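Researcher: Go.
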Amino acid sequence: MKVLAAVALLSVALVSTSSPKADAPTGFDNKSNGMVDEATHQADQAKFDDTETVADGLGPLYNAQSCRECHQNPTSAGTSQVAELRVGHQGPDHLFHNPEIPIAHGAEIITGRTLVNDRSICPNAAFPDTEIQEHVPDSENIRTTRISLGLLGDGFVEAVADETLVDLARKQCAESHHKICGQAISVPIVEAPGETGIGRCGWKDQHASLQSFSGDAYLNEMGITTRLFPDEVTKLCNTAPEPNDQAGPDGLDDVDHFARFIRASKTPARDAKLADSDRSQKGAKLFNKIGCAECHVSTLTTAPAGTKINGGTYIVPEALGGKTFYPYSDFLLHNVGTGDGIVVPMVEHYGRNMYQTKWKNFSAQSFHNAQNKLRTAPLWGVRFRNRLMHDGNSTTLRDAILRHRKEARESAHRFDRMSAADQQAILEFLSSL
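Model: Structure:
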């Protein structure tokens, strides 16, 4: 009996040590995932939602006046129908080149970026004769729109170990006999000069860090300069002191608050009613069977709490460490036949000192290799989108599936050959995400 009792105790111990990791919290309730207290989270959201003015440093070229303007469905940091414009051209060397965009009747040429801003602050009362609206020259014949991304739950995405994504890419390529090979790309960590990490934020995986991502968007989408991105795109019409955003009494600036708000957000919750339906559960199995889950990976786990990431500038907190979450993405770059032909512009995304810094494991060639690749779109929260794919040009889930080619052509072909009932099961499953 003593032996049996000992075996029973040992079995309990083994079960407890091998139990699955805790799931990341889900929801659209604007509450913290536990990383910070509710008062702090609400204060950070107020920063995220705040509208910028010219006096704050808005522009001179910009797309939006607040973070929530591009990330707000069904709540702040959610998805959006807003799309930005990017362009460029192929040079005589057959390589992609950033555009040259004249403003102020040719008085200045905007370079170093592929983004073309939709708005400007001039002409205005202070500068009635200065017009700086950007227009695309005929020479820039590579053109695309990119729809704004959802940010909810991205704190968990950021906390996935680099090695996890690298190993996923290797395994994926080996198991598919090189038919499906996601690219893991090393990108600069702007707040840690010289350090790089595996990209996972943005349509081109241009950032690994939410701090870098937030600083980039603050400058390029709103025109607000910060300690991370201190240089204006143009000085024309500019009157606000530089950098526009300064640290508050707590030592944190807006970029710090944005990053903390995103990190403390919950992951998108599923539609419980649809998720529990027999047809949706059948659709989930068919989704896996036809190969969609090769890239739209259902489950990832974050690094343990206490792990240093982002060049040692950020430690994975207890609330985010060792958590399992369900993004339906591998966060790798793939060529699925919809690539926009745009190469990541270094200066735009990493600042004007990009080339004065020696970055670890950095290869500009890897960015050129990804010219026609895009990050696998996470499908969590996809039911809140009615414009799909990177450009927003697909308006139904069926359209989006059938647009997949190249690495995803076999899966799209299998879907196309399914019975109407099986196709509908997959679509109901996707509608539950």
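Model: The first strand starts at residue 61 and ends at 62.
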